[in-house]
Design goal:
193 residues, mainly alpha
Amino acid sequence: LDLLTPEIENIRAAWRWGVTHFEVALLSKALFPYLNMFLESQGWYLEGEETAYQAYLSLNPVNQQNDTTDSASNERSLAILRLQLLAMTGHMQWRSGKFERGLRLLEETVSQIKPADDSERRIQEQNEPLAQSLSLYLAGLAAEVLGDYKGAEQLARQSLQLAEDNGSHYQTFYSYRLLGKVAIANGDYLKAE
């Protein structure tokens, strides 16, 4: 992080360029490192919230000007990215103390997660289940803080299943971590271990 901090203006500019040019694949890869691992770890929740929400609004399909040959795949990828941005907006709101607003956005995001139908399965990108896993994890994290331990556990288990099925050690770790926090809150210390 210390090495990246002096480059923050370049990172912000690259993000804005990606949003302006609808670089969905690049933004999908940069979303978690930039918003979560960098902005959140610095405690820049308001910037994270604004960045995620502005990208969500800007990446509305009606704003897209370039015509692509694989429109169904791009459309699905864009929808997934927008869901991730909405989840991250809710997460950043929650982290900055706007619990109700953040939770509403996280719940809205989770309610929009739909499995791909048979035709969409053929064009499904590898990161789609991880996007769903992240959204479920963030919603579970908010539920845990609000004392809804049963809901938090259910969301964490769903997140964990998607993370494990798709080989994401990083997301698997966080899902297990949330399950451990819920177990501790319920007084089940052996299960937490």
